[in-house]
Design goal:
Length: about 90
């Protein structure tokens, strides 16, 4: 796997994992009981971009390491599985 391919795959994994990390420990203004005038009740009460980015990067790095282990070290890929449709 080349460096450019690795960076592209990590980028896709990072953005995919972001949607998993965003709602973790999120408390809305309605949950906190302090709704700011002019905002929706479901708006986050306290949101830290740095905390989300840090946790997302840690999880994405672990997922990428697992992906690298399976594909490069163990050599498991799409060609490793039997063909479901005969003759393909």
């Amino acid at each position: 796997m080349g460096i450019l391919t690795s960076v592209a795959i990590y980028f896709v994994i990072w953005w995919t994992v972001l949607f998993i990390v965003l709602p973790i420990r999120m408390r809305s203004q309605a949950d906190e009981g302090e709704v700011v005038l002019g905002t929706t009740h479901s708006a986050p009460a306290r949101f830290s971009v740095a905390r989300v980015a840090f946790h997302n990067t840690l999880l994405a790095t672990a997922v990428f390491a697992l992906f690298y282990l399976v594909t490069e070290v163990l050599g498991i890929g799409p060609g490793s599985f039997p063909h479901i449709v005969p003759g393909t």
